[in-house]
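Troubleshooting: if your tokenizer reports a length mismatch, compare against these two reference records.
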Amino acid sequence: MLNELTPETIISMRLLLAIIFLMSIAIIQKRNFSINLKSHSYILILAIIAVFHLWIQVTGLKFTTASNTGWIIGTAPIFMALLGLIFFKEKLNVLKITGIITATFGLLMLVGKGDISNIDLIQNKGDLLVLSSSFTWGIYSMINKKISLNYSPVMTILYLFIMMSIIILPFTINEAAVNSVINLSLMGWISILFLGLLCSGVSYVIWAYALREMESAKVGAYLYFEPFVTVVTAWFFLREDITLFMILSGLIITAGVYLVNKD
């Protein structure tokens, strides 16, 4: 989609589609639309973080491969485990610490292409932005967990997306953006519908439900399936190369993340 739309336009369109979808679900389920100012103040903070998270992640994709992005995003559970320790006093034992060190080593090997001394995250801004988005997703998940304990996940995400749209739309609505949407290809529409309805509309709600019921680290554990899906999909749709070293680095990251989330 980055070949047809700017990152800001992509984010705005997926938010608007998700709002329409979730609003329909809320009406069908006869949800309570009453506004709680305290909860909405938390959601506003969540919206600011979520907009920043999506922006740096989509922008990072302009400068690095989807495959690298998948592996780097796979470190998000580590940030969730560390932040869970800080915010929710979730335990961090020797095994988890070993996992963090292992995953960090794998990440450095991946970004440095086998030579840690060659790592230059300032020059390779794509990987740096994606890594930053893993941290912001951890922050997002911690705040989401806090407010989801006493607020409906469906309504939380609906109000979240409405606030995110209010934040980002003023920076997006212009003639160039409108023209790019009007001229969007069929594959572009399929892609944005997938992002809006499934990646935002469905996935964010499921994530909120999971965070309400489980420890942050355990929820984060399921993210280590994402890199494998990303690499295979990137190979199939984008014809990105899958190298043996990339797989090895990814497996090291995955092993570390597994240890972080192992009881």
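Reference record two:
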Amino acid sequence: MAFPDFAVEERLVSDAEREAFGIFGKLAGSSSQSDFIAHSLAFADILGSPGEFSSFVHGEAADRLVAIDHLLKVFRENTELLVHKTWVEKSDEKRKEKLIEEVSSFEREFREGDLRPAFRRFVQLCHSIAHLLFGAQSRADDFLLYTFRIDPKLGLFFWFVGELGDQLHRDSGDDELLKAEVLVGMYVLSCF
């Protein structure tokens, strides 16, 4: 998915947020772990609070594992809270139940190191969350414009999810890239 022209034309994003588009391109094109770390950190700093993401990619391995474990817990709790608090039509109640099950499956896969299935499930979770939040609008052609107008960081997050979806369809990315992208996605969703 290309950089949305409307975001620039209508000045919906700040200069820092605009930089995120280029940084993501560098992240997706990275070939070394140090590049994955540097670019995921820069991207997450724009979408979240600067410096917070660092604990997931820097420091001792044991400290990173503790931080990631906490992130998984916060992600699961926030997603479950969001799902339970979201008002939906009666026909979507089963979707809410399935989403809770999918979060548990995602967490299990990620913890077990099954990064490709976890990546695929994460992208699906994000689409399901968008549907719960925005209904049919989440499938509309102007969904990104809609989300950028609500909040540029929200729009940027769903642009990121679209990029991950494109990557999923190309079946590209090594495990370290997929892990970095999922960590960024969980982190960003946990910041909202």
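Descriptive notes for reference record two:
- The radius of gyration is 16 Å.
- The chain has one domain: 13-191.
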